[in-house]
Specification:
disordered C terminus; 5 strands; alpha+beta
Length: 463
């Protein structure tokens, strides 16, 4: 159990909108259930009722006979979460009871609250938004040392349901020692637990406890049920088949892409071979006279010079020597064919590299997913083992080894019974006085008027 206290805020609408919807506030897919505490409204409308309570704080104080003096509560929104460990699967009933128990531990069981459970993480967790202003007296809740209260409450919860955070137990014990020392010596300077240096003896004690935990887990691990080998074998075969299918699909895609490139270049090859064949035929049969060769050489002087115009002397040599002209033309034709082949090869290489790069990205993702599936069962067993062999169990084991045989370890104090969960419309409403019911009806009427005045508008931070 990990409680997390968020920063105090001013917007009930923003906080409730976040916990009752997805992060983008477009759907409710991640919300398992939602519920209100000490509110007459539904969860969607509860923000307005809490806002009205904060707005009318001075009037509530006057009606209840409280002292109206003091600084105004400018940040009445308290938001915190309760997260269970990965692998734990509490029922909705248990999650509601736990949330109500945490409110009681903070002294907020009489305050207005909205609770919502989320399933968008690897661990289940509950968001709780509380109005720190009491709905009857208008007084602000005393929230000093809220983190410490939540830490002690979480420790008591884990002692009953399985310890996952041994460091929290050690920190709370240290806080108790510091508090006792300060009571004995009030002049002693306060130093936070996180800034205190660990004593050498304490460090060795913790090391011994960790070693005992490893020993106990090593003894229990062989006794735990092993994963079914047939399931593991079938999973391995399926993973291999998935990787092979991805590889073969990529090979087929590369072959198809290369065939497409070949089909695109095929007309160019056909036209090039026809032009070369016609040119060679013209030189062998038609250009037999020097004058005809002179016309051909002059018209192709740029091409025959490899991009540079031929000089008069070079043109004269080609005109007077037919064999040299034929060799020069064949060399130029071979160069043009090699150039087209290089262009085709470059296109094939480019598209193949792009497809294989996509394959490498996808195969890495598939391997990570398969690795996660393979180790899921192992992690589940290890998580169960951590709940069985805890810091407290190792401490009891060491204590039992050091005590005489007739000594028995002290019994662990259980948590007090958790309160019954609240319904969607809190049953506390039925016990309200006529004046309180009139206030509720007034708030509902104000909200309807606000909606009529502001259709489709979102004021966001309403405080």
């Amino acid at each position: 159990m990990i409680p997390r206290l968020h920063k105090r805020g001013t917007s009930f609408k923003g906080a409730c909108g976040y916990i009752l919807h997805d992060a983008q506030k477009t759907s409710r897919d991640r919300v398992l259930w939602s519920e209100t505490q000490n509110l007459i409204s539904t969860p969607d409308d509860a923000w307005f009722e809490m806002f009205a309570t904060a707005r009318d704080q001075a009037e509530l104080k006057r009606q209840s006979g409280q002292d109206a003096r003091g600084r105004k509560n400018t940040k009445p929104v308290l938001h915190y979460t309760l997260s269970w460990a990965i692998g734990e699967n509490p029922t909705p009933q248990h999650m509601r009871e736990t949330a109500l128990s945490s409110l009681k531990a903070l002294g907020l069981d009489g305050h207005q609250a909205v609770m919502a459970a989320h399933s968008d993480k690897d661990h289940l967790h509950v968001h709780i938004v509380v109005n720190t202003i009491h709905p009857v007296t208008g007084m602000t809740a005393q929230l000093k040392y809220t983190k410490e209260h939540l830490s002690r409450w979480a420790e008591a919860y884990e002692r009953e349901h399985g310890v996952h955070c041994e460091q929290r137990i050690a920190n709370n014990e240290k806080r108790k020692e510091i508090a006792a020392a300060r009571q004995a010596d009030p002049s002693r300077e306060f130093v936070a637990v996180k800034h205190q240096q660990t004593a050498r003896a304490e460090w060795f004690d913790k090391k011994v406890l960790l070693e005992r935990m490893k020993e106990l887990r090593a003894e229990i691990r062989p006794l735990m049920p092993q994963p079914n080998p047939e399931i593991r074998k079938a999973m391995t075969a399926q993973h291999r088949a998935d990787r092979e299918a991805l590889y073969q699909g990529t090979v087929a895609a590369v072959d198809h892409a290369r065939s497409s490139v070949f089909a695109r270049y095929r007309p160019q090859w056909r036209d090039l071979y026809r032009a070369h064949k016609s040119e060679t035929k013209h030189l062998l049969r038609a250009a037999t006279h020097p004058f005809e060769r002179a016309v051909f050489v002059y018209s192709q002087r740029q091409r025959l010079g490899n991009g540079k115009p031929l000089t008069i002397r070079q043109m004269f040599q080609l005109i007077m020597k037919p064999d040299r002209l034929l060799q020069r033309v064949e060399a130029i034709q071979n160069k043009e064919r090699r150039s087209l082949a290089r262009a085709e090869k470059a296109d094939k290489k480019q598209i193949s590299e792009r497809l294989w790069l996509q394959y490498r990205t996808r195969i890495d993702t598939v391997r990570e997913q398969q690795k996660e599936e393979r180790f899921a069962m192992v992690r589940e067993r290890e998580a169960h083992l951590r709940t069985v062999v805890t810091f407290a169990l190792a401490k009891e084991s060491l204590t039992a080894d050091r005590q005489p045989a007739n000594d028995s370890p002290p019994e662990q104090q259980a948590l007090e019974a958790l309160p019954a969960p609240a319904s969607a419309f809190n049953t506390a409403v039925n016990t309200r006085s006529p004046a309180q019911m009139a206030q509720v009806e007034k708030i509902k009427q104000q909200m309807e008027e606000w909606r009529k005045r502001n259709p489709g508008r979102d004021f966001g931070r309403e405080m």
